[in-house]
Amino acid sequence: MGVTLALLAMAAHGTSMVVASFAMRHLSSAPGSMLAAAAGLPAGLLAGAGQLAFGSGVELPSLRAVLGFILAGVFSTYLGRWLIFRSIELMGPSRAAGLQSTSPLITAFFGWLLLGEVLGPLGFAGIGLGIAGLFAMSMGGHGLQQGRTKSVAARHRGFLLGSLLVGLGSAAAYSASHVFRAAGVREWNEPLLGAAIGTFAGLAALLLASHKQMTGYLREIAAQPVWARVYVAVGFMQFVGQSLVTASMNYIPVSLVALISMCTPLLVMPLSYFAMGKQENLSLAAVLGICLTLSGIVLVVLHGRPQP
């Protein structure tokens, strides 16, 4: 069940990245990230109201659970989403998805340090294999197009370091959010309501951080109403992905959740190749990376936990 939920979360996040890459051609990522974060709030309220109306009752959360979900929302809805949107804008969806490859290893470390989760040697080997595959996908999924001039290639390399830092920052933010979300759901087993709390906290942080640019954002949104609605759809997909990630943490270690849910290149790269074939290249290295990542997931799922 945990693996299935994490795979569904990966599908939701991967689809949202491809859709967002199309929207960014018309509306920049800064107002887009605000719209996507805002879309998660009504989604969370509706999901929470439905659970309260048709569920079997909800216990009051502990302070630690609420704090965990708040921190998870700030790190994912605010920092993670803004940085991942920015990296998609800078590098394209394939390379941005590939740069998330460090997240499972960071999450595994903090899961061991803060949550007491232990993986066996084969588990860490599987995570390493998955990360190697993700790295191969990121390197092979979006190369410089043939025919570019040397000056254009030089400018591309000049932006590369900054782009890498943005992508790695996003991976670190999502790693932190995974750990905080796991701590919250194990204190209070309400993934939908927890996701709603996190979405509200992340949106509040985003609005506080960008209040000076709000007038310009609203002007951009008013000029592109169709693509603004696309960003809203992206936000709904990301809320669904966060809820599924949270639910999966009840069944499997947070490090495994991070590995599976961050394997968005498995979906992003084929979709990008067929949807944006001229900009996104699916090379032999990318195909090899997909195979390595799938092998790593299988190894962790089957043999990751140490024997009692």
Automatic annotation (TrEMBL):
GO terms for cellular component: membrane. SUPFAM superfamilies: Multidrug resistance efflux transporter EmrE. Keywords: Membrane, Transmembrane, Transmembrane helix. It comes from the Bacteria. Residues 1-138, 164-301 form the EamA domain. The chain crosses the membrane at residues 30-54, 66-85, 105-137, 158-180, 192-209, 252-275, 282-302. This is DMT family transporter. It comes from Ramlibacter aurantiacus.
